[in-house]
Amino acid sequence: MAVYKIFAEKDTTLYSDYGTLNSGMDPILELTKNTSLLYPSQSSAARFLLKFADDDISEVVSNYIGTASFSSSIKLYLANSTGLPTDYSIEVFPVSGVWDMGTGRFGDSPIPTNGASWLYTKSGKTVPWALANFSAGVTASYTSINSGGGTWYTGYKSTQDFGIYTNKDVNIDVSSAVKAFVSSSISNQGFLVKISGSLEFNEAYNFTLNYFGRDTNTVYPPVLEFKWDDSKYSISGSSVTGVGSQDVRIALANNKGEFNQDEIHRFRLNVRDLIPTRTYATSSIYTTQKYLPSSSYYSIKDVKSDITVVEFDNKYTKISADLQGNYFDVYMYGLEPERYYKILIKTVISGSTLIFDDQYFFKVTE
Question: Phi and psi of 15, rounded to 5°?
Fold first, then answer.
């Protein structure tokens, strides 16, 4: 199993009603569809850009994933929303064209123009977004009076659908785009995130979706999450046997309690039966190591917020095993520093799914 997260290096929201406004330092990223303040008979929209550093992507692929198959997902956490339609979709495209994040904020006076905006890619209202004569595989989308809003590659579209009862956080697979970055098929200029075209300028709707940006002071900045399966379950020749029942005791054998953000730590599990089979022996049977089944997984929660930061996954958070017992590796880089986390263990024994939450705490430091 392996889960590795990297944080966005830059982001900014683009507002169709404020063509030159830069909001690169805002802690919130907006997706909106409202009545235009400038053109009351028309609609206005907000989209946003975010980019993850080439060096960070290269490091995880080259140093950790290698040739293994992997998936990549952008995760965005909802700050608040208003007026949402019953059903809507969010689209993500890789950006075509270099853009500056800028240092502006929405509401600043005079209006900051030192970065990307609806009309321009650069500071000082220079280098406008292309409106026609696009490169092969590139397009844009806008209304006649709100031209601009970025350009993107059409061949790597990712979509997530939302319903009235679904979780409104974004968790959208962008594997095809990331693999294109890695192979240099397209240049990594980040991603453009927008409401689906059928709703974005639909005058029948007014709604707002606000997500935490990279400059948030919360623990919910945007992340690009990599997942790949590096689990191994190799116990041939081991004297350790599997657990005998659902009455199991699990402990972390080597939790030192505090880890640097750059560490990769292999947690090992001490596993034993709570009610071992009676036998004659010269040592305590309660110290006998056991194996969890191969259908065992881990999860990580932020202690204070109780938010799950690494979900149980039947493929990507599998617990491994070798001749010493069960283990799994945790990449601390994608966890917010100066926070406490806890590990949960899930296993399937005799057809029953068991989850162990025995206060396995640790802290990540800078």
Answer: -115, 125
Amino acid code (one letter) for 264: I
Q: How far apart are CA 298 and CA 302, in angstroms?
A: 14
0.85 exceeded by the pTM?
yes
Q: Which fold has domain 241-365?
A: Immunoglobulin-like (2.60.40)
- Strand-pairing partners, residue 339, are 364
CA distance 314 to 1: 9
- Extract the tokens encoding 85: 């339609």
Which structure tokens are listed for 188? 């990594």
The pLDDT value given to residue 279 = 56
Terminus-to-terminus CA distance in the chain, angstroms? 24
* Nearest-angstrom CA–CA distance, 193 and 169: 13
Q: Where are the domains positioned within the chain?
A: 2-228, 241-365
Query: Over the stretch 266-318, which tens digit does the pLDDT of each residue have?
Result: 999 988 877 555 555 555 555 567 889 889 999 999 999 998 999 999 989 99
